[in-house]
């Protein structure tokens, strides 16, 4: 053991080097077989729920494995069967509650069949998505799930030639690669615009992220502009809050810009509930009454929107249902029940709360 005392700004810091640990050799299948009095092949079959192994023998094998701390290595078995038993998934962000709900529902459903999730996040970057797709496909997943329907040409080619089920989620692409579970982001925002106009709002703004990265946010912005145009309203009140994902702080800053540039704004639709919550706090900071002076709408039905005061008007995209439906589709394809591209359309729901009429 060796230590160094290093006085610094925070006081005395002690750095300690411990002797190198000699790791114990892990127990093997042969160890479990000897403990149970069966062959290694029987042990393997017991872990794979092979019907040729009796319940009594299986319980004995599993009990011995538990006592020894043995973990079954499925690699060799998977190589023989040409199965990897995992689903590859890409999402834009790992700290987004909506995407987390989608992955959780997907994982819960496929895990019932012994399948696991291998997750990668793209940080809203299509070039990074392309790199991840290539890496994930090298591991031979049973299926691959990607978020959104816009990809680089090379990513589309990789997915098209993958030879496994490909599911695009959170979107309804015009030219799907394979299967689709999603909704129209543009039409979802249109529903909120239509409602706002119907209750008398005319000077309506939109807060979103950089249009060249957040493709779903871009679709929501396009739906906002198209809906206002159909109502005979111009759409100059567009505030870009920065690169996605838009945080609460960035939403607050964007609301500040909006109020400075367009102080007569009557309502604002935000690309997400997080940015909408930030916009709400900026109004509260400035003493602007919501919804009496200005209405606010978000997207995603985050928990924070439901418990905020006032609570946020929002759009529920049914993130968990997207994950569950994606899992069902994957299992149907793997079971041979579906030999044509599947398309599951989710219908988002406008939730009217206290930040709007």
From TrEMBL:
<dbReference type="Pfam" id="PF13377">
    <property type="entry name" value="Peripla_BP_3"/>
</dbReference>
<feature type="domain" description="HTH lacI-type">
    <location>
        <begin position="27"/>
        <end position="81"/>
    </location>
</feature>
<keyword id="KW-0614">Plasmid</keyword>
<dbReference type="InterPro" id="IPR028082">
    <property type="entry name" value="Peripla_BP_I"/>
</dbReference>
<keyword id="KW-0805">Transcription regulation</keyword>
<keyword id="KW-0238">DNA-binding</keyword>
<dbReference type="InterPro" id="IPR010982">
    <property type="entry name" value="Lambda_DNA-bd_dom_sf"/>
</dbReference>
<dbReference type="InterPro" id="IPR000843">
    <property type="entry name" value="HTH_LacI"/>
</dbReference>
<dbReference type="InterPro" id="IPR046335">
    <property type="entry name" value="LacI/GalR-like_sensor"/>
</dbReference>
<dbReference type="GO" id="GO:0003700">
    <property type="term" value="F:DNA-binding transcription factor activity"/>
</dbReference>
<dbReference type="Pfam" id="PF00356">
    <property type="entry name" value="LacI"/>
</dbReference>
<protein>
    <submittedName>
        <fullName>Transcriptional regulator, LacI family</fullName>
    </submittedName>
</protein>
<dbReference type="GO" id="GO:0000976">
    <property type="term" value="F:transcription cis-regulatory region binding"/>
</dbReference>
<keyword id="KW-0804">Transcription</keyword>
């Amino acid at each position: 053991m060796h230590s160094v005392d290093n006085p610094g700004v925070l006081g005395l810091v002690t750095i300690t080097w411990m002797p190198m640990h000699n790791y114990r050799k892990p127990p093997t299948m042969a160890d479990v077989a000897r403990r149970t009095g069966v062959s290694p092949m029987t042990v393997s079959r017991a872990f794979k729920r092979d019907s040729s192994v009796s319940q009594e023998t299986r319980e004995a094998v599993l009990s011995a494995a538990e006592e020894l701390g043995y973990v079954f290595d499925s690699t060799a078995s998977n190589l023989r069967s040409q199965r990897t038993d995992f689903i590859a998934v890409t999402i834009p962000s790992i700290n987004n509650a909506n995407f987390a709900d989608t992955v959780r529902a997907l994982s819960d459903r496929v895990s019932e069949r012994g399948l696991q999730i291998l997750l990668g996040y793209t940080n809203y970057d299509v070039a990074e998505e392309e790199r991840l797709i290539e890496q994930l496909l090298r591991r031979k997943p049973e299926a691959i799930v990607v978020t959104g329907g816009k990809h680089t040409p090379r990513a589309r080619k990789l997915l098209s030639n993958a030879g496994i089920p490909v599911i695009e989620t959170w979107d309804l692409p015009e030219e799907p690669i394979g299967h689709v579970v999603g909704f129209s982001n543009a039409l979802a925002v249109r529903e909120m615009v239509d409602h706002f106009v119907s209750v008398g709002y005319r000077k309506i703004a939109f807060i979103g992220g950089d249009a060249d990265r957040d493709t779903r946010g871009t679709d929501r912005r396009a739906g906002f502009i198209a809906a206002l145009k159909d109502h005979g309203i111009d759409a100059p009140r567009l505030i870009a809050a920065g690169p996605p994902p838009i945080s609460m702080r960035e939403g607050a800053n964007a609301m500040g810009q909006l109020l400075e540039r367009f102080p007569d704004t009557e309502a604002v639709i935000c690309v997400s509930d997080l940015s909408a919550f930030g916009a709400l706090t900026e109004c509260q900071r400035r003493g602007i009454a919501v919804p009496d002076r200005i209405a606010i709408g978000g997207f995603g039905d985050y928990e924070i929107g439901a418990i905020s005061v006032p609570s946020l008007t929002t759009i529920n995209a049914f993130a968990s249902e997207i994950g569950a439906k994606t899992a069902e589709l994957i299992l149907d394809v793997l079971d041979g029940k579906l030999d044509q591209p599947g398309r599951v359309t989710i219908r988002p729901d406008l939730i009217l709360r206290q930040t709007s009429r």
